[in-house]
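In response to reviewer comment 3 from the previous cycle, which asked for concrete evidence that the modeling workflow produces usable outputs, we include below a single protein chain processed end to end. The sequence was submitted unchanged, and the resulting C-alpha cells are shown without manual editing.
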Amino acid sequence: MFKTTFLFFLGTIALFAQHTVNDSIITADTIQHLKFNYKQLIVPGLLIGYGVIGLESDQLKSYNSDIREEVQEDIDKKITIDDFSQYAPAAAVYGLNALGIEGKHNLKDRSIILASSYLMMSATVLALKNITHVERPDGTSNNSFPSGHTATAFMGAEFLYQEYKDQSVWYGISGYIVATGTGLFRMYNNRHWLTDVAAGVGIGILSTKAAYWLYPYTKKLFPSKENKVSSLITPFYNGKQIGCGLVMQF
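The workflow returned the following C-alpha cells.
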C-alpha cells in the first residue's frame, strides 16, 4: 500500500506543487513579462535529482524493482495510450484556441514558446539517454533514463498551465492529470523505471519554464514584419494625354 501511495504521490507532486509554491512570477498580467524566479526550480530540481541519484543508489534501484514487480503483477496486456497522451496537453492549447478560448499568446508566439521548450527538452533527454545507458525494465534497449514520453507530456502540461492559468486553474490541472497518467503508463507497460519517470517530469516542467523565461529573447529571432504601405493616386492631364499616376511608399 505504501509503495502504491508513494508512486501516485511522485506522479502528481508537480501538480500540487505548482499551486502551493505559487508561480511567484513578476508580471504585468501578461506572460510576455515573465521573469526568472529561483523558487520555480525547486520542484523540477528535486524530481530530476531523485532520478539522477537513482542511477547510482542501490536503495533506489531496489525500490525501482519493487515498484516494477508490484505494477506488473496484475497486468494482462499492454496499453499503448501513452504514445498518444504524451502530446495531448500541448495539443489542448491549440484546440482551446480553435474553440475561441484564448490563452496568453497568439498562434505565432505560443508556437515559438512550444518549439523552444521542445528543443530544450528533447536535447536534454537524448543527451542523458546517450550518456547513462540505463537498461529498460523489459530489457529491449539501454536508453531508459530519462522517460521521453513523460518529459513530453509534462512539458505540454506546463505549457497548458502557463497559457490558461488565468482563465481557470482547471485547465492546468487537467493537463497535469493526463501527463501523470502518461508517466504511470510508461511503468505499467514495463518501459521505464520510477526514477526515469521522475526525471522526465522534472525535465519537462523545467524546459517549458525556461522557454517562457527566454521568450523575450527568442522572439527577437522572429520579428514581426508589418509592412506599412502608403499610396497616392493622382490624376493628370498634360494637354494631350489624360491618365493617373500611382505613388507607393514602402
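DSSP finds nine helices and two strands in the chain. We consider this sufficient to address the reviewer's concern, and the full set will be provided in the supplementary archive.
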